[in-house]
Amino acid sequence: MTTGIFVTGTDTGVGKTVAACALLRAYAARGLRSVGMKPVATGNADSGGNEDVTALEAAGNVDAPAAARNPYALVPAIAPHLAARRTGVQIELARIDAAYRELARFADRIVVEGAGGVFSPLDDEHDMLDIASTIGLPVLLVVGVRLGCLNHALLSALAIRARGLMLAGWVANAIEPGLPFFAENIATIERRLAAPRLATLPWSASGGPRWDGAVPI
Ligand SMILES: Nc1ncnc2c1ncn2[C@@H]1O[C@H](COP(=O)(O)OP(=O)(O)O)[C@@H](O)[C@H]1O
Ligand SMILES: [Mg+2]
Fold this sequence. Notes:
- By secondary structure, this protein is of the alpha/beta class.
- It has helices spanning 16-29, 51-59, 66-69, 80-86, 93-103, 128-135, 149-162, 182-193; strands at 3-9, 34-37, 40-41, 72-73, 109-113, 139-144, 167-173, 197-201.
- The strands form two sheets. A six-stranded parallel sheet has the order 2-5-1-6-7-8, sandwiched between helices. A two-stranded parallel ribbon has the order 3-4.
- Strand 6 (139-144), helix 7 and strand 7 (167-173) form a beta-alpha-beta unit.
- The longest helix is centred in the first third of the chain and has 14 residues, at 16-29.
- The radius of gyration is 16 Å and the shape is globular.
- The site of magnesium ion has 4 residues, from helix 1.
- The site of adenosine-5'-diphosphate has 15 residues, from helix 1.
């Protein structure tokens, strides 16, 4: 049976893609067919191609249709709802759900990467967490460990739970090499988040870090 997880983060640029790729490789190492999905990507080159979509594709181990792995590829490098509006696109949750169901034919594990953070808007009414709700996925929170991350981590967890979603766990991502009080920051989140820290990803100058812990699904 295919299972999936929705990867969100404390902000944009905190390591959602890095963590999602590490998780995809961890599934592959366990002999599972894994595929990454980026429902809404912004900042696509006119010629096609998006860094996150490309990275997720390389980290997974099955061939699946590009339209299912990335149903919305928006060109402007701005917030998804603004990019959609600017290009006359209406982001439909039903289409994202259908794309996920198609991917399920190809893989045992689907790692779905949101854009931005939990409340990043999709349109005037919906946000990233609606993708997790619509598909019916537990949520993995990537915390980019840096100044400000405690507040963002706790707010994100509150939002996830307020929407009735399951916070499967969190990942501590060492986004800033040599950050003072790295361990203390992690310990603080650990005490307050009431969800397991599934992995700690070290800062890795070359190549993606390895997933060092239990997998969420
Ligand atoms: N553990 C890490 N070690 C080194 N660089 C990292 C690490 N995590 C993230 N980065 C870098 O930080 C940037 C943002 O990470 P990314 O995974 O793209 O974030 P997001 O998907 O949340 O926007 C990328 O350039 C990425 O290579
Ligand atoms: Mg990303």
